[in-house]
Amino acid sequence: MKISELAQKTGVSVRSLRYYELQGLLVPVRQANGYREYSPLAVETVETIKLYLNLGLSTEEIAGFLNCVLKNKEAFCTEVMPLYESKLADIERQLHQLTQIKHNLEERIASIRKEQEESREG
């Protein structure tokens, strides 16, 4: 199938598919005229890439285990669990930081509102 057909079937832009190819995640066959030709398995590959991107992984991280998960169950790919755990720890750190920022903003808003009220009363 051509790149435009793969894009249509997967909902991924042609530009993204070309990027996946550059990253080594997707390997088309080049025809004599230079056109990319994708096998029917490319749809499953792109859907798998989308899943991992939605988990917050980078294409570089995905490249480290994609071949394994396409051939085996995820549980049998030793690279996956440490990556998930690391990503979860990063998210927990970000959530903590965002919670602190939220708290700081709430305090500033309350302080400004109090000052505004006092100036109206005074």
Please tag this protein with its features:
Multidrug-efflux Transporter Regulator, Chain: A, Domain 2, 6 helices, 2 strands, about 5% strand
List the helices and strands and how they pair.
Layout: H1 3-10, H2 14-22, E1 29-30, E2 36-37, H3 41-54, H4 59-63, H5 66-71, H6 80-121
Antiparallel strand pairs: 1-2
**Helix-strand topology string:** HHEEHHHH
CATH architecture title of the largest domain = Orthogonal Bundle
Largest sheet: 2 strands, antiparallel
Instruction: Give helix % range.
Output: 55-70%
Uncertain runs are none
Total E-strand runs: 2
Distance between the termini: 75 Å
CATH class of the largest domain: Mainly Alpha
The class by helix and strand makeup works out as mainly alpha
What is the topology, as strand order, of the major beta sheet? 1-2
Number of helical stretches of at least 4 residues: 6
Radius of gyration: 23 Å
Question: Which word captures the global form?
Answer: elongated
CATH topology of the largest domain: Multidrug-efflux Transporter Regulator, Chain: A, Domain 2
Tally of distinct domains: 2
Mean pLDDT: 94
Written overview of the protein:
By secondary structure, the chain is mainly alpha-helical. The chain has two domains: 1-72, Multidrug-efflux Transporter Regulator, Chain: A, Domain 2 (Orthogonal Bundle); 79-122. 69% of the residues lie in helices and 3% in strands. A two-stranded antiparallel ribbon has the order 1-2. The radius of gyration is 23 Å and the shape is elongated. The model has no long low-confidence stretch (mean pLDDT 94). Residues 88-122 form a coiled coil. One of its GO terms (molecular function) is DNA-binding transcription factor activity.
